[in-house]
């Protein structure tokens, strides 16, 4: 199999990282959409959450990542021991993550579960694919918050559904591909159908925001809950 080459070059991100909380063990931030979580191999993709924060908190490491276009809550470990403890919580699915999203169209059901295994798709990198045979188990919950129409300047009405998404697992692109599987891709998602419907190409960003993060603080062992309002 030929080696996969990533040709993506991230456009400059002028938005700042919002520091929501910090102590001697971890940092909680609000990541802007359009910023890489980790610097890429291409020197043109140097700017990232980690690159910026390591200047302020030497030795800090990422516990988890958000997609380039996704905004919202991220927890950063300030040392290796905290990183290991938090990673263990993520791997054991003790961390609760909640996202806000705008989906194309109006969902018929008010809530439901998407249970569809996800696999890498080497022929269409960086896309992932639904694959019951080779995929890793992936499960997401959705709950409708509101159904409405967005009116563009030219009068075009775009049906949208605001949802709360709660992934049980943490596969790459899980929420994006699961919403596509549901038949209602996330608005602004260029990889999984969120820019294909009429006028959706005008959307300025991926409409996905990590709005809640709940976990046990590794040092105090107390339940730590963070919430951040969606910008859309």
TrEMBL record:
Q: Which domain of life is it from?
A: Bacteria
Stored CDD domains: PseudoU_synth_RluA_like
The molecular function terms of the Gene Ontology recorded here are: catalytic activity, acting on RNA; pseudouridine synthase activity; RNA binding
A UniProt-annotated Pfam family: PseudoU_synth_2
Looking at the record, the residues that make up the Pseudouridine synthase RsuA/RluA-like domain are: 25-181
Coiled coil (residue ranges): none
PROSITE patterns reported for this sequence = PSI_RLU (PS01129)
TM regions (residue ranges): none
Q: Name one GO biological process term.
A: enzyme-directed rRNA pseudouridine synthesis
- State the protein's name: Pseudouridylate synthase
| Native species | [Pantoea] beijingensis
């Amino acid at each position: 199999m030929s080696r996969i080459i990533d040709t993506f070059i991230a456009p400059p991100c002028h938005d700042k990282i919002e520091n929501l909380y910090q102590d001697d063990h971890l940092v909680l931030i609000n990541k802007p959409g359009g910023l890489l979580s980790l610097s890429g191999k291409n020197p043109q993709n140097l700017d990232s959450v980690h690159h910026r924060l390591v200047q302020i908190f030497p030795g800090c490491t990422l516990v988890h990542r958000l997609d380039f276009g996704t905004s919202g809550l991220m927890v950063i470990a300030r040392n290796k021991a905290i990183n290991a403890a938090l990673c263990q919580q993520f791997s054991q699915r003790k961390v609760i993550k909640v996202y806000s999203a705008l989906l194309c169209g109006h969902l018929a059901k008010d809530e439901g579960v998407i249970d569809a295994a996800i696999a890498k798709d080497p022929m269409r990198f960086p896309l992932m694919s639904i694959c019951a045979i080779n995929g890793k188990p992936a499960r997401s919950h959705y709950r409708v918050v509101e159904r409405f129409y967005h009116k563009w300047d030219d009068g075009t009405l775009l049906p949208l559904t605001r949802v709360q998404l709660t992934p049980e697992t943490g596969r790459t692109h899980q929420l994006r591909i699961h919403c596509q599987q549901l038949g209602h891709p996330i608005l602004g998602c260029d990889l999984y159908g969120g820019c294909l419907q009429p006028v959706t190409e005008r959307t300025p960003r991926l409409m996905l925001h990590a709005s809640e993060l709940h976990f046990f603080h590794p040092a105090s062992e107390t339940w730590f809950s963070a919430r951040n309002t969606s910008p859309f």
